Amino acid sequence: DTGVSQNPRHKITKRGQNVTFRCDPISEHNRLYWYRQTLGQGPEFLTYFQNEAQLEKSRLLSDRFSAERPKGSFSTLEIQRTEQGDSAMYLCASSLGQGARYEQYFGPGTRLTVT
Amino acid sequence: KNQVEQSPQSLIILEGKNCTLQCNYTVSPFSNLRWYKQDTGRGPVSLTIMTFSENTKSNGRYTATLDADTKQSSLHITASQLSDSASYICVVSSSGGSYIPTFGRGTSLIVHP
Fold first, then answer.
1. Average pLDDT across chain A, whole number
2. Which residue out of A9, A32, A95, A103 would a mutagenesis test of the B interface target, given it has the greatest number of B Cβ atoms within 10 Å?
3. Could you say which of A56, A99, A106 has the minimum Cβ distance to residue B43?
4. For residue B69, what pLDDT is reported?
5. pLDDT value for A25
6. Is the bond leading into B8 cis (omega within 30 degrees of zero)?
7. CB–CB of B15/B113 below 8 Å?
């Protein structure tokens, strides 16, 4: 399978714990995006990378959130001191270029439940 | 502020029937509009993409239309199947700035046998 992959697919954690998600984009794609999606809503932009550089972060990305993309390949999204409001589907997407015409290909998402 | 509004929020139809989903946007400057299908618990998958000069684009039983003057788009599904049950998300990209697309909330479609 050469699509975008995300791990884990599901994560249940207790409030206050740290969690880390991984995204492996399509190999030749230089742009990588993170989104958060809650039930009944469309995806909300969190941050994106052009190769290894993090170029933009949404105001939704509080200090408890951090994302990395070392070497411009896979990316990780870490949430520290999780809160119940962090429960959501976290989607990763990648695209071949930076123009608006380049389609974003989405991974299956990581479902986070904070108890 | 760039916004994408979709209607209806949810829709229930019988298998074999047609339906039309609506999308209104205020994204400017406009680059393109995509319709995505998202199955429950999965990531969105692109159905169609339209640029400013395109009025209609088809993908099998899915036909998208775009009126760039009124900033409206529709997605028409013909002869619905049970597998069409999903959320359909309208996504509009701007040609300015960082090209971060604006997502609608989606229309939840349920097809009953």
1. 92
2. A103
3. A106
4. 92
5. 96
6. yes
7. yes
User: Do the chains contact at B49 and A103, CB–CB below 8 Å?
Assistant: yes
Please give the residue of chain B at the shortest CA–CA distance from A93: B43
Cα–Cα distance for residue pair B52/B50, rounded to 1 Å: 7
Q: Tokens representing A72?
A: 């411009």
Unique residue bearing structure tokens 């395109």: B54
- Give the nearest chain A residue to B94 (CA atoms): A100
Indicate if the pLDDT at residue A100 is higher than 70: no
- Strand ranges of the sheet holding A75-79, from the earlier edge strand across to the other edge: A5-7, A19-24, A75-79, A65-68
